[in-house]
Amino acid sequence: MNAATTAEPATRGRERRCGAAPAVTLCRVRAHSYGDIFSGRRRRQVPEVPADPGLVVEDPASGFCGAVVGVEQDSVVLEDRHGNHRVFPLAPAAFLLEGKPVTLVKPRSGKQPSKRLSASGSVRVEGLRARTARASRIWVEGKHDAELIERIWGHDLRVEGVVVEPLDGIDLLPAAVADFGPAPHRRLGVLVDHLVPGSKESRIVQAIDDDDVLVTGHPYVDIWQAIKPASLGIGEWPAVPPGRPWKEGVCAALGWGEPYEGWQHILSKVRSYRDVETPLIGAVERLIDFVTTGTSG
Question: What is the CATH number of domain 137-227+270-291?
């Protein structure tokens, strides 16, 4: 998250000197592959470098440069000089170290940073007292969306003083935005399900044109589907016949009872950002960045 205007001393990192471009707002970015560079007659060998705490590297695809603050099973968490955190996959030749491609691997010694990370991958602020709520808001489509975001990003939202409010769908979104009265000190972020070309949701969103409003979304029919099936112990989300409510169809196919029972089962399995799909992570991170970078408020 961009925290330039809301710096919390306990969460801000040391200044990084690597000449990278300003941090972007996407999370768990798929790093650029250097495979084409090494496809010539003479392949250059890309060294493997342990992702030790404090190692400063750059993701060339996004320009994000930062120090290693966490290593998971298949990803690394970087912190830039502003204290922003991003999660990147540990892919071959995915990073630059002093301008040269490297492959990051888990530290051989197994050592990890002393900083504790929150469920979103950000540095946890111990003894946190939530800051006064901003005038800016994040809207989501319903209660389940709000609960999932709280489960993963709740710590970050309290640090930043951001309130998430559930809507009852987005059919009346343009009118609701007008009533809210967005302004530079009162920004609005909106998370939308099934935001894909040609969908009803995309047509509704097209009616919103305001510099102080950001609408992001994910391609899934419902927020449930943004949770990785493997985290729930299923192979894949079942197909639901057209005309049947999606949640009811899913619960019937999986034996989860009524939708409210199915949701409680689902939510109990979510522990961190690793349990949800990348498009949702990027969409939420962008919204938090957006509503916390306006003028004071």
Answer: 3.40.50
Domain boundaries, given as residue ranges, for the chain: 1-115, 137-227+270-291
Render the burial of 132-169: b for 16+ CB within 10 Å, e for the rest. eebbbbbbbbeebbbbbbebbbbbbbbbbbbebeebee
Residue 35 or 197, more confident: 197
| pLDDT (tens digit per residue) in 220-267 | 999 999 999 999 999 999 999 999 999 999 999 999 999 999 999 999
Q: Is the pTM of this model over 0.70?
A: no
- The label of the residue with tokens 């330039």 reads 4
Integer Cα distance of 234 and 280 in angstroms: 19
The residue type of 104 is L
Residue 195 has pLDDT above 70, yes or no: yes
Tell me 241's DSSP state.
-
What's the Cα-to-Cα distance from 14 to each of 50, 54, 170, 187, rounded to whole Å?
Answer: 20, 10, 41, 29
Q: How far is CA 217 from CA 47, 175, 197, in A?
A: 37, 19, 12
Quick one: pLDDT band at residue 64, thresholds 50, 70, 90?
Answer: confident
At residue 30, the pLDDT reads: 40
Rounded CA gap, 227 and 269, in Å? 10
Tokens of 237: 């989300």
Alpha helices for the chain (secondary structure H): 143-160, 173-180, 200-205, 246-254, 259-269, 278-291
- The helix/strand/coil state of 73 is coil
Q: How far apart are CA 124 and CA 119, in angstroms?
A: 9
76-95 per-position pLDDT tens digit? 988 876 678 888 999 899 99
